[in-house]
Specification:
Distance between the termini: 51 Å
Largest sheet: 5 strands, antiparallel
Radius of gyration: 37 Å
Oligomer: single chain
Strand content: 15-25%
Strand order of the largest sheet: 4-3-2-1-5
Length: 483
């Protein structure tokens, strides 16, 4: 122990405090554990320096010191308790960080406040030799008076403690409190701060958040809901509308199979019926894009449904074939003569659910136009069948056989009951000469879909990582490759 003796114990203790402040201030915060180890070591040196100077934080300073040394010794002994409280608080934060995360400020502050309160009372009793019982009684009376004065603030504080303990939401969660939706950016002693979609910040008192209904839109994080509401005329038959809505939902690949998406009638009036469509997706960031996609799919399916088509034809008389041609963007550029000629060549076909419309490996001898329903397009890879996409009303099929006369590398199957128009290749010969708009549009569509197929075929399935005790032993004993 002689090697640990200090020539100037009190000055050495003060120097240790200065070193601790410098280290804690200037060492990178990312090295929190190393800072904690250094602080514990410095606290041990500080304690040894006090003991070497015949000081004990567990008893008042002896009377053998000069007034200046007595004052310095009393201050250092009092600081020992606060220094120990600070080291204990930092140690607890490091140990609890994996559980509470790096942003659990409220619990950390509460824990630190309790530790420092206990340390201050202990220092007052042991070092200053004050009557702790009287001090606690006085402090209790003062606390009651202050509690009555700041009752609402204390309600927010304790509500914040409850919210941090039960964790109905965390920082970075998207929640809705009292119909206010936003992202949680901070939870402090009094309030919860939300960043709304418009970029403004909303401050909600914790007492209000604890009493009102909280909707956490970020949990469960496995899926997120997409809800649409549309109103349609009451003259449209609900069963046909619901069938079109179900087809529109199946036309989106972003929607999860489970929980299953669905559509229901929310309410009905004298002039309109309100329908609610609900689906679920993996990423909340895709909600806007999926909503837009669903609106487009719903419009296309409703436009292709019998009920809406009959209503539209009553307002503006038109043939069914003409409506199908209008649904294809690339065919809208044809003049009236060409459109009339194509309408005479269109033949109607229907396919049940699961029916193969175009088998893989066949050369399509016709251009197919989907009038209603959803078609899934899949390609066979080494790991099985892979879905490339889904087609709906107004989409074309069989363009590769018409333009390139090559075997179809994909399989087109009816995902729902489908109605398809067919135009034979022989009938399309007048439109397939070089420079024709229809021929160029079909070539561009075939090229784009060919690129999508190439990307899908280049995919390599991830090799399954072996697990288990045998794999661990083999990995541990196998020598590493040289170099």
């Amino acid at each position: 122990m002689e090697s640990l003796r200090f020539a100037y114990p009190l000055a050495s203790a003060a120097l240790v405090l200065i070193i601790d402040l410098v280290v804690w201030q200037y060492v990178d915060p990312r090295h929190l554990r190393w800072k904690m180890v250094i602080r514990l070591c410095l606290f041990l040196l500080f304690s040894l320096a006090l003991l070497d100077g015949d000081l004990s934080p567990l008893s008042p300073v002896q009377d053998g010191f000069t007034p200046a040394r007595h004052t310095l010794a009393t201050v250092l002994a009092f600081i020992w308790w606060l220094y120990g409280a600070r080291a204990l608080t930092a140690l607890a934060v490091v140990m609890l960080e994996p559980r509470i995360g790096g942003k659990g400020h409220l619990l950390q502050d509460l824990m630190g406040a309790i530790i420092f309160l206990v340390a201050t009372v202990a220092a007052a009793g042991y070092v200053l030799d004050l009557p702790v019982k009287g001090l606690l009684a006085t402090s209790g009376a003062v606390a009651i008076i202050l509690g009555l004065a700041v009752q609402s603030t204390l309600g927010d504080v304790f509500s914040g403690i409850v919210l941090n303990a039960t964790k109905p939401f965390r920082v970075d969660d998207v929640i809705s409190i009292d119909d206010i939706e936003g992202k949680v950016i901070e939870i402090d002693w009094r309030s919860t701060y939300l960043l709304t979609g418009s970029g403004s910040m909303v401050v909600i008192p914790n007492a209000m958040a604890a009493k009102t209904r909280i909707i956490n839109l970020s949990r469960p994080n496995r899926f997120h809901s997409v809800v649409l509401t549309i109103e349609l005329p009451v003259r449209l038959r609900p069963s046909l509308v619901l069938d079109s809505l179900e087809k529109a939902l199946q036309g989106s690949r972003d929607l999860l199979a489970q929980p299953k998406a669905g559509a229901v009638i929310r309410k009905s009036g004298l002039r309109s019926v309100e329908y609610e469509i609900t689906g679920f997706i993996k990423s909340r960031d895709r909600r806007g894009a999926v909503r837009n996609q669903l609106y487009d799919l719903i419009y296309r399916q409703l436009a292709a449904s019998d009920s809406l088509r009959q209503h539209r034809e009553q307002l503006t008389p038109a043939t069914r074939e003409s409506a199908a041609l209008n649904s294809v963007p690339m065919l809208r550029t044809l003049d009236e003569t060409e459109r009339t000629a194509l309408e005479r060549l269109m033949r109607l076909s229907s396919y049940p659910v699961g029916g193969v419309i175009l088998p893989q490996g066949t050369v399509s001898d016709a251009l197919l136009i989907i009038e209603s329903g959803v078609v899934t397009v899949a390609i066979e890879r080494s790991d099985g069948w892979h879905e490339l996409g889904r087609l709906g009303p107004g989409d074309l099929m069989g363009e590769s056989g018409i333009i390139e006369q090559l075997p179809l590398p994909v399989r087109c199957t009816a995902l729902t009951d489908c109605v398809v128009y067919r135009i034979d290749r022989a009938d399309l010969e007048p439109w397939l000469h070089e420079g024709n708009q229809l021929a160029e549009a079909l070539e561009g569509l075939a090229s784009f879909r060919g690129h999508v197929r190439e990307v899908a075929l280049q995919h390599r399935p991830a090799a399954a990582t072996p697990k288990g005790l045998l794999h661990w032993i083999r990995k541990s004993v196998m020598p590493l490759p040289p170099g």
